[in-house]
Amino acid sequence: MKKPSSNMTILRRLMLRLLPVQILLAAVGAVNGIVSSYFASNYVGITAMSAVGLFAPVQMLITSFGTMLAGGSVILCGQYMGRGERDRMQNVFSLDLAVSVLTAILFTALFAVLSLFDLTGFLTKDPEVRRIFNRYLLGQAVGVFPLLLGSQFPAFLALENKGRRTTWASIVYIAVNVALNLLFVRLLRLEAIGLALASALGLWVFLAVEAQYYFTDAAQLRITAKSLRWRECADILRIGFPGAASSGYQTLRGLIVNRLLETFVGSVGISAFAAANNLLGIFWAIPAGMTAVSRLMISVSIGEEDRQTLTDVTRVMFRWFVPMMYAVAAFIILCAGPFARIFFRDTAQSVYMLTVWGFRILPLCMPLSTICLHFITYGQASGKNGLVHTLAVFDGVVSVAGFTALMIRTVGMNSVYIANVLNGVVTTLIVILYAWGKKKHFPRNMDELMAIPDGFGVPEAERMDLTVRSMDEVVAVARQIQEFCRERGVDERRAYIAGLCMEEMAGNIVEHGFSKGTRSHVVDVRVVHKDGGVILRVKDDCVPFDPLERQRLTDGTDPTRNVGLRLVFNIAESVQYQNIFGLNVLTIRI
């Protein structure tokens, strides 16, 4: 009867269902880079492509602040959701948006000053490139506000199971961005400032589609500036800072690499690297989406102190996400030539071959980077700041910039590409060595690789996981629960109540939930013995069903209706329902 993989099955389905929306969201920035690079190289010139490449680290700096705010806020909200603290979720949501607005104002002013007063000499010494870059930066200033705000909403929409809105916002953005580039760059010949304005105005449309939901009655979270507990800003920044530090280190890495390329290869090297990076950005959206899904699931698991789900999230990453990235990398390598010709049609130009080698080598780092990003996210959520900062420093600066500096005199342009692959090897070794140091021996299982503290969650001996796939299994599961309780010294009355509650609720799900649609369903049942009490948790992927709301609606009506629900509410100490990412999660305390 016992099916240890039931939680894994539901979790895998959920993570794969959430993944496309998160990938599409991450791809928005990549599409911006691809479209800008295409129009820059084909309608403005290679010098404009260098300007686009120089802006990449600057955009990474903005992204680092967005990552800090979104990462810290989502992890906090996930933990509060796991504990059922909705008021605190509301406060974190509103604080996140308020701080994002203030940050956007500061960056907009900074970009305007740097571009208007020609203060960008620290990025490039080439006067022609700097002239074009200043115009590009001024246009990008218009899009800072929607870039920062737009990066906050998707995770909250996912928490409310409204990820499709992000999908539509992304599709609309892509269409608007392409249309405006055709208008501004190809038809009106606005060159660099046209490139920037097209993406900036497209981001405003993206933000409008996303934010509109939070002005409707359907939204669980509300945008408000009243009664905000500003002290929680410190928690948002503390939790989100490691992720921001990672992006900040990558900003520094980009500046160093650009300077090395300008010195030893020339502006043609920056153009090639920008072209390869911008097109690969659409593929990097895949591990970025995987990381976003992992962040959501990890934060809720930590809030629930659910050790099993926490390790299962990492198992999904290794068993599904990493192999997917190997397949993606193979596809990119096979298409290296055609991809390079998107930006440089003249195959005789040196920049063409430099770009081809980027597509042949850079994809090899993607699977290992997926592991690194996952453990950075896990470290953020679990407070493993030593692991997070170590990974961030090596991934962001030390490995890539260091290996590039060592090899560029002899290997040339390819040193940058090879350095990224070596970086993936180094960060994977860091994860293993960290676990080895914490456990005092080589990690032998997922629990040890993640270095989960012994006191986290409920010991395995004090919990039992079961699977219900049909009505025939419901009664047997109830008996197993009663036996589990008796073996741990729970009195006969509460052991009987625990089995009865589970029989009623699981049976109700099988009878009414399994009949909806043709997809197979399972009910993941967990019983926990903690502090002398019994906690039952029922999780299913059927249609949303809130038994608390149903009980309130039928209270005082026909006493013969919903007898099972009434019985559970009468005998249980507490009953809590949440719909998390489209999953029904019912927690009963006996």
What does it look like?
It is a single chain. By secondary structure, this protein is of the alpha+beta class. It folds into 2 domains: 432 residues, no CATH class; 129 residues, 2-Layer Sandwich (Heat Shock Protein 90). Helices cover 73% and strands 6% of the residues. The protein contains 21 helices and 5 strands. It has a 5-stranded antiparallel β-sheet with strand order 1-2-3-5-4, with helices on both faces. A hairpin with a 2-residue loop joins strand 2 and strand 3. Helix 1 packs antiparallel against helix 2, helix 10 runs parallel beside helix 13 and helix 12 packs across helix 13. The longest helix is centred in the first third of the chain and has 39 residues. The chain is elongated, with a radius of gyration of 26 Å. The model has no long low-confidence stretch (mean pLDDT 84).
Keyword list:
alpha+beta; 590 residues; 2 domains; Heat Shock Protein 90; 5-stranded antiparallel sheet; 73% helix
